[in-house]
Design goal:
125 residues
Length: 125
């Protein structure tokens, strides 16, 4: 898979996380509110993208784990530094949800690619 579709999928996952989180707390889901919630995690993701050099193999497991960890850890650190709320339950939910989203689509992608390879169909890149 090329980097741009993977990057788009990851950013969408982070935005979905922010939208669902805001909705579950009865906060508005307007663009400004969603970006206010998502920016620390997008920044963490960008750092992880650089650290893991994910543009080389955006779906690879080591890359995905660095992206996920960086998104969560840096996102939480930035929330603390900016005075946003960070409670243990929020950290745990964030880690699980972003793990399911960021790692989940990669797992599904890999399964589909393996199935296509076994059946003799060429992979779509």
């Amino acid at each position: 898979m090329r980097i741009w579709p993977a990057l788009a999928a990851d950013v969408i996952c982070i935005l979905v996380f922010a939208i669902v989180g805001r909705s579950s707390h009865a906060e508005t889901t307007d663009l400004v509110g969603v970006l206010r919630t998502a920016w620390p995690f997008l920044a963490g993701y960008a750092l992880g993208l650089t650290l893991a050099r994910s543009w080389r193999h955006p779906v690879a497991r080591p890359s995905a784990l660095v992206l996920w960890a960086s998104t969560v850890v840096v996102g939480m650190a930035l929330r603390v530094l900016t005075g946003a709320g960070v409670q243990l339950s929020f950290v745990l939910v964030t880690a699980v949800v972003l793990g399911v989203l960021l790692l989940g689509w990669r797992g599904l992608w890999s399964l589909v690619q393996r199935a296509r390879h076994r059946s003799g169909h060429s992979a779509v890149v």
